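Open question from group meeting: does this chain pack into something compact, or does most of it stay loose? Before anyone orders reagents, we agreed to write out a predicted structure and look at it together. Recording both the input and the output here so the notebook holds the full record.
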Amino acid sequence: MAAHVLHSGTRRPRRRVTLNEHLPVDHRLSTIYRVGAGLMGLVLVVFGILGLIDKIGFFDTGGDTVAGLNTNGALSVLSICVGLLLLVGMVIGGNFASTLNMVAGVAFILSGFVNLGLLDTSFNFLAFRIQNVLFSFVVGILLMIFGMYGRVGSALPHDNPYWRARHPEPVRHAGRGPHHPEQT
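Structure tokens returned:
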């Protein structure tokens, strides 16, 4: 039945849009990407440093809390590393910060789900509790929002570089005025 649809021979070539399209260095979206990476990175670094100051055991799964979240040495070190990576993204800015925010956001959400499944098991070596899982979800969603802002959506302005990359035909036609040399 569906064979005639699959072999009709009229296939349109699909244009792939990469996440690293060129964005001007001074584009206003870069500020949003930098702020998102910087805020989340700062929160994670502070949380990690506070966890290390308390001299909690590296894989201790006891009830040691910092800022309302359960922690141990491993989670503190991991938080500092991820926070520093996000701060590097803030310094670099642009598409790198945006892509880093999106990837880190997805990683935080996946971490939340994995650690939700590991609660109250012997495999919970990061000492997660439900508040850590919720924190992981919130940070993941915020990072994804900061990373996707201005890149995805149905109402992007037509001067947005990502909209222009996804819609090359209207951009090409917009450049042709009544006296454009290509029309003669």
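Observations to bring back to the group:
Helices lie at 3-6, 28-53, 73-92, 94-118, 130-148, 161-166, 168-174.
Strands lie at 65-66, 69-70.
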